[in-house]
Fold this protein.
Amino acid sequence: MGRGQVQFTGRWSNGLALFAREEEGMTSIDTHSNGTVATRVEELTAVFERGLQENLGVGASLGIRLETAGDGYTRYYLDPNPATINAMFTVHGGVIATLMDTAMGSAVFTKLGDGVAYTTLELKVNFIRSVTLDGSRLTCEANAIHVGRRTATAEGRIVDANGKLIAHGSTTILVLNPEQ
């Protein structure tokens, strides 16, 4: 772990505090910027943990996991499994798109203020090569490019365990301010 990063886990629940934990493989967050980024990252981690505990969401159904998040940046991973393949026994394009959409939306979310939500307006994915069930982990790194009052954009790249590019893309996000 680098300077200014904290590993933590917690639960998504009103009134329950999130707490730090120093175990390998837990999500790391960048705390050097402001408290809002740390709060957004805590919320992301809590949502994913709750989904795993309650068997809900893309983490539980597809195996998508949050690895690292910071100010406008996230890294998620997926270990392809039988639930992620198509009729040709390769990872379904929709699963790859979901991994990328999750990472890019989350990168934008880390830059949003308290109470601000988001939804994907547009998703563009360029598929470079297919992925088989060979045990190769897919990793998606995403960066928020622009975060405005009403829209945001982000870019993402998915690579396999050997660093080969699998897909890259971009998104436009609708920012949902509570006062609107």
